[in-house]
User: Fold this.
Amino acid sequence: MSYLWENAGENPERNIFVYQYGNKLYFYNGNIADSISSPYFGGAVSLTATVNSKFSFASIQGNLVVAVGDQNLRVIEYKSNTYTLSQVRLKVRDFWGVDDGFATDERTSTLTDLHAYNLYNQGWVPEFFCSSDPDNPTTMNNGTVEDPVERTKLSLGVYPSNADILFTALTMLTNGRKAYYPHALKNIVSGNTPAASGHYIIDLFDRSQGRKDTYDEDLAAGWPARRNYKTSIPTDQSTGGIKAIAAYAGRIFYACSAGEIGGDSRSPHIGTFVLFSKLADSLEDLGKCYQEADPTSEDISDLIDIDGGYIQLPDAVNIKALIPFKSELLVFADNGVWSIAGGDRGFTATEYQSRFLTNNGALSSDSIIVTPDAVLYWSKNGIFALAVGQTGIEFKSLTEYTIQRFYNSIPYTCKKYAVGIYDDASYRCRWLYQKEFNSAAPQKFTHELILDLSMPAWSRFKFYDTTDLSGTATPRPTGYLASPVAFRNSVGSDFRYTVLQEGASRTYALSLCYFEDWSANDAEAYLITGYVL
Assistant:
């Protein structure tokens, strides 16, 4: 897997080739046109990830952001010829809470640990000035600062329900002080509408530990101790990790792999989520997938444009890639493609929409190609294009009336490993693939499929696995790497092949090349045409 990191360190003159080999990233000078034979500024960074995981890359504010498939986002800063690696956890507000076994509007005479957590997460603060006079709530001397949850039990004989809101039962005392008046709850009919939740900010993946941590965080913030619910919080974890990322609308968007441990009826299935950070002003903002204002607050609870959050696509299965295109973000999954777009002011946390485009999903993220006019990708039924039409993003097949029989002949497993690139200089889309699947080396590509968009026309190419007269094996192409416009070769190609060259000891050296029969110059070639009488 390779990536061109442009504007590294917010220097528009600095381009760095990033190449994944196992669980390490190697950095090479993107400002040198013809070679990556030596690391750039000593550049190798180990990400301690699963060796066979395929990384996803994005860059924002000159920083490289990497998803390696686990639950920690990696961020690499480049400053003064030095790479600095940091890790970020994704955080969300706990809009789910826990299943405490009570009906939404049930006021129970017993406070369980789980119900206590839900009430606290719904804005029942640890202490508030509470009025205790049932006959004259405005008497200024009848009240004290205490836990409003326990005051409700003392005054009414029951605890608040999951529909009750603290700030709907306030009264103004004669001295102008605001107080909680439990008896007012008796005149409030909340029905089965749950109270706003999300007071606590928790870890996206290990939600149960995040909920346990909130108890100690309240104590550290200076609040008095109250019901300790830590030991009763049930396990609620996601086993997946961050699978795909994209920089879009000044934020980083995330898609995660599915898998849950424990949980209850309220637990989210984050494999169907597309999360987004708040508008990024710092590295810390990249993990803030939540609104800054407390949604349970009486005073300031509003969602604002720059906040983070998440979008749920409940029908999406195994989201593979997030691709910015024009003013939209395309979401590729096994079973289809969706688009996410903003309003007239672009994407904001307060204005966006999602739309289902097609049920022809992508086989892999590597086959997706972005051109100025369309996004092309390999699916199980053909090669498809998404382009902007009169009604928004429109969908069409590129193979149905052209090379469908040939495409069908490529084994399904080989299609899953295909990688593509758009060559802007020649206006061509190119894909590397295997004609017969090699499980030992799935990215030792043997063939190339090329679509010339100017005609349009398809062509095929084959890489022969041979040795030269000295017995040296031909390099094997493993992928593509885009080239900065300033370093196109004399032929005008806008890409290079990444290749591995086998040495005498059967070790491999990484290099980049333009394909010219693996040598300096192509053989002269010509075509004679004519007709038969």
Remarks:
- The chain has a mean pLDDT of 87.
